[in-house]
Amino acid sequence: MILKRIIIVFISLVVLLIGSAIGLDYWISYKTEPYIYHDENKLPYRAIGVVLGTAKYVRGGGINDYYRNRINGAIYLYTHGKVDYLLLSGDNALISYNEPITMRKDLIKAGIPKEVIVLDYAGFRTFDSVVRANKVFDANNFTIITQQFHCERAIFIAQAQGIKAQCFAVPTPKKMKLVRIREMFARVSAFIDLYILNKEPKYLGPVIPIIADDQDSLLH
Predict the structure, then answer these.
(1) Cβ–Cβ < 8 Å for 142, 82
(2) How does pLDDT run across 56-93, given as a tens digit for each residue?
(3) How many helices (H) and strands (E) does the chain have?
(4) Which of 146, 109, 144, 127 is closest to 190 using CA atoms?
């Protein structure tokens, strides 16, 4: 009898947790929708574009479409005057794996001037990338460049930190079922970091402004 009750309680808790995760997932999507743009013509100008890093290659070889689309999105926004600077934020865990350097090389190859490119080597997570853009690189109004589902979490983090960000949603590869499931758990983790643990990025440091005054640049 006691074992049966324990099993019932355990199952109830699992169902509650899963239901809460799904509810949070939908709530974040709804809450951030007004700040996400798919049409570049409707995207308001911001001086700084923050490109969230990911691996360039997939296992087994070939270019990662998530990476390709973010780079293409960054190129488009810069060449069409939607941003003036590109902050490349990602992981540099290994000498052979350095997301910001890899992105920089590809952007320069595409004709983006190197002087408008800024690297953030400590963007280990989306949380770190968004908060460091504000606290380290002194940006408050900026455009995040990534896929729709990732935009939602990034904007959610920005809003919780009082950061005025918007996001340009680049195309999402069709095969993303596992990615979307992982995203749901990533949102739970972000919520816990923001509202329960009150976490800070792994590394902060001295303020290194990308431009003299991010607010004034919006008037240009």
Answers:
(1) no
(2) 998 888 999 999 999 999 999 999 999 999 999 999 87
(3) 7, 6
(4) 127
